[in-house]
Amino acid sequence: MNSQSDTKYIHYLQYRGKFKGIPGWLLTTDHKKIGLLYLIAMITFFLVAMSLGFLMKLEMLKPSSTKGSTLMSAQTYNAVFTLHGVIMIFLFIIPGIPAVFGNFFLPIMLGARDVSFPKINLLSWYFYIAGAVIVLISLHTGGGPIDTGWTFYVPYSIRTTANVSLAVFGAFVLGFSSILTAINFITTIHHLRAPGMKWFKMPLFAWGLYATGWIQILATPVIGITLLLVILERTLGVGIFDPALGGDPLLYQHLFWIYSHPAVYIMILPAMGLVSEIIPTFTKKNIFGYSAIAVSSLAIAFVGYLVWGHHMFTSGISDTSRAIFSFLTFVVAIPSGVKVFNWVATMYKASIDPRTPFLFIMAFIVLFSIGGLTGLVLGALDTNIHVTDTYFVVAHFHYVMFGGMGTLFFGGLYYWFPKMFGKLFNEKIANTGLILFVTGFNVLYFTMFIMGYQGMPRRYYTYLAEFQTLQVISTIGSWIMISGILILLGNLVYALFRGRKAPDNPWGGTTLEWTIPSPPPVYNFEKIPVITKGPYERN
Amino acid sequence: MTEPDTLNIVNQEHTHRDDIGSKMGMWLFLFTELLLFGGLFILYASYRFMYKEEFIYAATKLDLLTGTVNTIILLTSSLTIVLAILSLQKNYKKLCLLFLFLTVALGFSFLINKYFEWRAKIEHGLFPGGSELLNTSKGETIFFGLYYSMTGLHALHVIAGLIFILIMTSLVYKNLQYNTNYQKLENSGLYWHLVDIIWIFLFPLFYLIH
Amino acid sequence: MPDTKNTEHLNYSEKNFDPPTEEDFLNSLSDKNAHQEAGFGTYILIWLGLISLTAITVALAGINLAGLTVITALAIAIIKSSLVANYFMHIKFDAPIFKIFIAVSLIIFVLMIVLTFFDLIFRN
């Protein structure tokens, strides 16, 4: 099919280092294998959390006031939505794209043979797994599964008998994993770019990871210490967050959101970088406004630090700060808009090749726009008061997080799958799965916007009879969406074993990963390439 | 499947020494430490703003002498570690080892001081949930809550720093760090200086505000 | 399916280049490792400065400066830490990128405090 693949080489999956089999994987320092270790772990956790979400929607099929028992008790429901949130956010959405695709592709895209600190890279995977295991252990020890919601708000989290300390410690360990990955990426980007690759000749995915890395480094420690203080509060009663001893619970919320709002950008910036990769490939054009997109990543990261207060509009913070936070929230729309306009300008008058990865981008733009626009409703002070803590908020962040990062996680998987495994997948089945996913997604979450607007509060295990029609529609949506996801994943698993062999550059991409064989050789590049042009320039 | 050993491949664990990269990684890690304490400094600033009078009163209960002595100990240990690195660069291995031992000794004396300081406080019931602290104002409870959290976390960092330095001492002793390859030692030095810098701020905020 | 034999659309052709070997690349990195250093004397002077500043700040704490107590104490702490960072941590002699890193981190940290205080100061 092409010259490079015919020549003999050892690709990374064939390579046997000091150890064979499972130990060979668990002790690998190859960034590609570490990326796959993350991928396996992450899809597992995603499926677990998705099943929890499925159960929650099933519970909502019937209000519990009607005859007969419902699926679960109120306490179980609390534990289920907390776990769903904790697993999805801390184990899937936040680390997802950087840990899997960043690890696998960042060094290749920069023309390097590995990240700067390969051993630390492996260590960060172990921290990730350790954090996950600690959270799992916390479910069966102490006072049982946490019921605080993923936000662990005080004072409830220091009063509840559930096993908050251990679960929170698990999140703390996950923070370590995130920080170590970020240190690795930033140093790699500074130091291991191929000769000739100036900053503004770097692929935009790398820019996204760079901005993300800075958020991970400067924001993650803040939640680290906050969570440690919650543990201290529960064990020793130092009083810092305990109102009975003089502490101020609002300060907990400040510190929590100082991290957790930028965390939203940790998930979306690499996803946006991915969009900037996929669009030029399938429009067969150089990207429009390269430097504007690159710089807007840094701008989003920076402004993203300054908007955390919009999660606390109804918590009792001062009016002045509410106005400031509301204003700054709207400022984020500017760099985000810069990105979207440049993407659209790239597609303008292009001969678009609507292959599967490109369709994921279309799905992303639709879902993320709905999420973004409803975000403005929430970012404005007065409308926020009306819909705060309702299904409206839940629908909004599912559109942004799941519709944004989640869609692109699968999009990235489909874009890079031929490169990662050297196999082609069935595009018709993939497109069918995608259509089911998007349809189900909208049926599931758009009805939640309506219910939220009508006053359906979040985090309740039951509801008033008047919501039943919409709840049933929403639950049916969840079934459609899950079947779409299962088709999407199943299609890839099938391709892994039965797929045709993929050429080196199935999509006609221009970045460095497409210049090497599929799957990549163990050392990535026989010769470190010399870069003379921008990443998306074509002759 | 092809037999890997028959082909000439670059070892996947092919690594090279990149001292600047290593130093950059260390600095990035230091920023995370800075922000870890940063969260506590935000809390300190906020509570000091809320409980100004109580904080000033509570600070008088701390022992200024112990605090000052510990400040001098840490500053001096910062000097000795930097001299250790310089000695190694100039290939004075024995001098380097001597300075490293001095640093470790100073680090331990800091911890011993801290231990006696905490013990004295705890004997007076000045600890979270302690008899004395339950009967005072909320502001004072918070002051001591922060005092124990911040100096405790700092002490943990001193211990971590000491462990790094002890490992480095053995590396220098075994000639694994030498005059042209000293980045690991320098990184431990950077960590130790950061611990020092944090104490430079903790000292006035707890001991000098009365 | 695009023909990958045709590498003209790739940006990374090595045709016009005598590509530097990896060794060249690594050498170019390690060349930067040499940087000037302060001597024993400088370090001891800095240490003396730090000890004197400690003495000053302790002495000043004994004097009632009213609202200025905390500000002077913090100002001295900032001078001390910048001495440690510049000399002991070599920032003065290192590449400018490290200074930029520190500046970015500090700016973001300060903004975190400022925005938190917009809440605290104006709270009723």
Textual characterization of the structure:
The complex is a heterotrimer of chains A (539), B (210) and C (124). Chain A is 67% helix and 0% strand. Chain A has 18 helices and no strands. With 539 residues, chain A is mostly helical. Chain A has a single domain (3-515), classed as Cytochrome C Oxidase, Chain A. With 210 residues, chain B is mainly α. Chain B has seven helices and no strands. Chain B has a single domain, classed as Up-down Bundle (Four Helix Bundle (Hemerythrin (Met), subunit A)). The N and C termini of chain B lie far apart (75 Å). Chain C is 65% helix and 0% strand. Chain C is built from four helices and no strands. Chain C has helices at residues 22-30, 40-62, 68-88, 96-122. The radius of gyration of chain C is 26 Å and the shape is flat. In chain C, helix 2 (40-62) runs antiparallel to helix 3 (68-88). Chain C is mainly alpha-helical.
Question: What key attributes describe this structure?
Answer:
heterotrimer; A: 539 residues; mainly alpha; Cytochrome C Oxidase, Chain A; 18 helices; globular; disordered N terminus; B: 210 residues; Four Helix Bundle (Hemerythrin (Met), subunit A); 7 helices
